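Input structure tokens:
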């Protein structure tokens, strides 16, 4: 196959995976018009429509999806093999792409990686901050960070942080005109600051546990965010009750800027784990990341 034909297939795969000419062009470092022309040329040469385009979205046709499923794993194998050749370098090198939440990044991952990466200038890390669940294989990530209870069974999982919990908090000004809830169900009558998890099916239902009894409460309120830090800011401003990681609000509770409620219902759960497919663990650049993030030397 001519080199240009192979490039056309790689560019098609880029569009098919992200379902966007704009994002694929940015990822490939080419113009959108060049990418569009290349895909049309590929479809003309094959005599098959591979992509269906609308003004807002791009989707694969039946033939295009079959090509994506066939081509994707083969390209991933080639990329993994090329990455493994980095073992012959004197120092680890290469790109590692991680998907994780803002809380995991700020409280666990970045504090651990910051000093280590200075010693490995050829190891590059791309962070994608997202509170939803991502398919790291299909979306081209090397690894992801999730709570231990939600890691897929077919992935290798390495603990990178201690157990922690979510706590319900709000400003004293909010409770000046509202009763303090003593049971999670009473949150239904309160203004609650929501968390959007698009890839997990929408708004997060707050989870509580006490004496073996588990409750999920679907709350409502004026504000909804995609990051914990923004929720804390809104709670400090008195817009309602937020359900956020304890370690980012503890100092506000101690100073009296926030009031913590329902403490006995806020149970700890397994902390953050780094999860990844087994083929990644042999790469020197990836081992640098794993070793740096391991919790407690485990």
């Amino acid at each position: 196959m001519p080199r240009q034909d192979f490039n056309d297939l790689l560019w098609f795969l880029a569009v098919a995976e992200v379902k966007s000419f704009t994002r694929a062009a940015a990822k490939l470092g080419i113009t959108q018009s060049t990418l569009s022309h290349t895909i049309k040329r590929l479809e003309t040469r094959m005599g098959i429509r591979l992509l269906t385009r609308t003004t807002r979205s791009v989707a694969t046709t039946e033939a295009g999806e079959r090509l994506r499923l066939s081509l994707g794993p083969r390209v991933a194998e080639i990329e993994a093999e090329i990455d493994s050749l980095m073992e012959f370098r004197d120092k680890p090198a290469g790109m590692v792409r991680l998907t994780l939440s803002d809380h995991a990044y700020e409280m666990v991952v970045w504090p651990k990686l910051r000093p280590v990466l200075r010693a490995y200038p050829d190891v590059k890390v791309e962070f994608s901050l997202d509170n939803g669940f991502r398919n790291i294989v299909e979306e081209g990530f090397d690894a992801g960070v999730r709570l231990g209870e939600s890691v897929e069974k077919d992935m290798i999982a390495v603990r990178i942080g201690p157990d922690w919990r979510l706590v319900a908090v709000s400003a004293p000004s909010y409770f000046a005109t509202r009763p303090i809830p003593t049971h999670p169900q009473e949150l239904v009558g309160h203004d609650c600051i929501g968390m959007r998890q698009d890839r997990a099916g929408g708004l997060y239902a707050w989870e509580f546990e006490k004496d073996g009894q588990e409750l999920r409460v679907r709350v409502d309120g004026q504000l909804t965010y995609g990051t914990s830090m923004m929720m804390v800011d809104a709670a400090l401003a008195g817009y309602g009750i937020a359900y956020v990681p304890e370690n980012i609000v503890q100092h506000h509770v101690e100073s009296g800027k926030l009031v913590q409620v329902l403490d006995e219902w806020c149970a700890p759960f397994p902390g953050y784990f780094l999860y990844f497919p087994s083929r990644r663990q042999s790469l020197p650049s990836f081992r640098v990341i794993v070793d740096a993030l391991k919790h407690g030397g485990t």
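The two ends are 47 Å apart (CA to CA). The CA atoms of residues 291 and 297 lie 9 Å apart.
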